[in-house]
Design a protein that fits this description.
InterPro entries: NADH-Q_OxRdtase_suN/2, ND/Mrp_TM. The protein is mainly alpha-helical. Helices cover about 75% and strands about 5% of the residues. Helix 1 runs antiparallel to helix 2, helix 3 packs parallel to helix 14 and helix 16 packs antiparallel against helix 18.
Length: about 500
């Protein structure tokens, strides 16, 4: 691996983010001068967003060489891991945006939604490339502020405004906690570069208790962003109350960014201090999995069920972090296979939850949105294709083979076993099995409950093809998951951490 500092590479290294930023600014200017043509402006904004995100994805896949580059005074880094994370974010965006477009309907000023969605993507890309605590915070806030806005995009809905206020207040507290932690770290280390933090800590005498507090504060902030127990209080209210067009971004793309945010803190910044944060991970992860599954069982509202399901799923993200070190490995040796299982799990969860959210928000029963699980009663008898595809989605989230969700959990558990965390692996399987109940309950309602003769279901027509493709990915990528896993592993090992 070669580590280079290159001014010539600076522009090319930031070209995808720069393209997205310029497109965002152009859309904002167009929104001011062409407000009299809302339909044309909305279509133009939508296709510009799709085009620039696809352009960025192509750059991430084909453009850059393998060596690790630091640029812009080492504020940003580019390597194969960064490009893999960026490509993942772009893929989620390309799925989320068409779903959101279908959900915007006749909302006023809907052309304003598209530059906000690009800001969410831009923030995720900045976090992925960040090599300085301030650039990491910048990416976090770009994403967060855009999310606060899209959550309340339907301003005439009281529940959307309530959800946005809750999300904003708690999110601001989490951001403040992160800044508080970084100020401690800077005070002790005297350095704000992420890649230098572990080197400085390893070579200097430092205030151990103060720096440990710093790491735990930043870790707590990342737990809030992921919706980890006990920082999950916002999740159900925001999922249930948010503007529906924001949900594909809130449930998938935001999780990708938040997971990258956590990795930057724990592994890129403070892997040397894993003796501080590593021992607490299994307890938090297992409680998160069990709590999310148990509370989801009690939910009748399908969005709240998916909210607590996401809490449970994020417990596996922490378990993938925990698998980085073996039981006897408090010798600072990271097994990079954890990164592969982590990235595969995030991809699997994001693509699965996008399909689930699309089903719950785009399906109409007698031309009315689905609210409760009981609204799906007997859908199989009236629309068997829709019910069968939805069944595949929920089975993937439950982790049933051979679907993609099974392999995601399998790779995480396999890494736990390989790292000698057998008890944690067994407990995670048992706690995860609890969650199968509420997914099977939805399937039971769809296939076996009674249906009224005049009931009918349909999906918003503009999203039919995309949703079917999304569902088929869960089957076919799941059936051929090992080549994808091998590609991710190659990207990880080509540069390391």
């Amino acid at each position: 691996m070669h580590i280079l500092e290159s001014s010539a590479f600076s522009f090319w290294g930031i070209l995808p983010e720069f393209s997205i930023l310029v497109t965002d600014l152009v859309l904002l200017v167009l929104a001011v001068f062409f407000r009299r043509f809302p339909n044309a402006l909305s279509k133009l904004s939508y296709y510009m967003c799709l085009s620039v995100s696809f352009f960025a994805l192509c750059l991430f896949v084909y453009r850059f060489p393998d060596p690790r580059y630091y640029f812009w005074d080492s504020f940003y880094v580019n390597d194969s891991i960064v490009r893999t994370c960026d490509a993942l974010a772009c893929i989620m965006y390309l799925f989320a945006l068409p779903y959101s477009r279908s959900l915007l309907g006749e909302l006023p000023n809907k052309s304003d939604f598209y530059p906000l969605s690009l800001m969410i993507l831009l923030g995720c890309l900045v976090m992925s490339s960040a090599n300085h605590w301030l650039s990491l915070y910048l990416g976090l806030e770009i994403t967060s502020i855009a999310l606060y806005t899209v959550v309340t995009f339907d301003r005439d809905r009281p529940t959307a405004n309530e959800a946005a206020v809750k999300y904003f207040i708690l999110g601001a507290v989490a951001s403040a906690i992160f800044l508080f932690g970084t100020s401690y770290a800077y005070g002790v280390i005297g350095n704000s570069y992420i890649h230098n933090s572990h080197i400085v800590v390893d070579s200097l005498f430092f205030n151990y208790s103060l720096l440990s507090s710093s790491v735990l504060l930043m870790f707590a902030s990342s737990c809030f962003k992921l919706g980890i127990f006990p920082f999950h209080a916002w999740v159900s209210d925001v999922y249930a109350g948010a503007t529906e067009a924001s949900l594909p971004f809130l449930t998938a793309l935001a999780k990708v960014g938040s997971a990258i945010f956590a990795v930057k803190i724990l592994f890129h910044g403070f892997s040397v201090l894993h003796v501080v944060w590593h021992p607490v991970l299994p307890a938090i992860a297992l409680i998160t999995i069990l709590f999310g599954n148990v509370v989801a069982i009690a939910q009748k509202n399908i969005k709240k069920m998916l909210a607590f399901s996401s809490v449970s799923q994020m417990g596996f993200v922490l378990l993938s972090f925990f698998s980085a070190y073996a039981t006897s490995a408090y010798d600072r040796n990271i097994n990079l296979n954890f990164y592969s299982s982590f990235l595969f799990f995030i991809f699997s969860y994001s693509i699965s939850v996008l399909a689930a959210i699309a089903f719950c928000t785009l399906v109409r029963k007698n031309d009315h949105p689905i609210v409760n699980i009981s609204d799906l009663s007997g859908i199989f008898y009236k629309n068997p294709l829709l019910a069968s595809m939805a069944c595949m989605v929920f089975l993937s989230l439950a982790g049933i083979p051979p679907l993609l969700g099974f392999w995601a959990k399998f790779f995480v558990i396999n890494r736990l076993v390989a790292a000698d965390h057998l008890l944690i692996a067994v407990m995670s399987v048992l706690f995860s099995a609890v969650g199968i109940f509420y997914y099977l309950r939805v399937i039971k309602v769809m296939f076996f409950d009674d249906v009224q003769p005049d009931d009918s279901w349909h999906m918003v027509s503009s999203s039919n093809c995309l949703w079917i493709i999304n569902c088929l990915i869960l089957l076919f990528v799941g059936a051929f998951s090992h080549p994808l896993m091998n590609s991710i592993t190659d990207a990880v090992y080509s540069t390391g951490l």
